[in-house]
Fold each of these.
Amino acid sequence: MANMKEIEERILDAMNQIRPFLNEDGGDLVLKEITEDYIARVELTGQCTNCSMNNMTFKAGVKDAIMKQVPEVKDVEAVNFALHE
């Protein structure tokens, strides 16, 4: 298994792939932490924090991109809003 630094770099790469789409709408994202049990905690910033589409953006964009590119990650959590299933 990759070490935590390699995992972090791959998560950041995945985030950089979707960042331009968020930036178009005045938003961005920040990796806040990776827990010991491989959960990536991500904060949406800018216009993304109050957007009515932030749940869909997070699940279909941020979470999917990270989970596909970094299979070691068990889950991706939003730190600044509640996801609605």
Amino acid sequence: MKIGRITGTVTATVKDPKLSGAVLLIANIEDGEGTVQEAAVIVADTCSAGPGDLVLIVSGSAARLAASTGGLPVDMAAVAIVDHIDMTTSSKGKN
């Protein structure tokens, strides 16, 4: 899984019939500090995410395992809206 921030939506009038009804979003893949690692990837939405939302993104065959994307020709899917991330950034005293 990866962390992503939704930046927009995609409208495609002419598409594979299996994509009819699928919501497509644009996301930036981010690291834990919010730095963009990969810009403007297209994800199928399974969790009603919208612009500005931080989401968990799955890719490859895992993107087709979510209930609403099963059998769809997608390579990435937003599967959860993130409420909170808690990161320990200091490794002092740990060996």
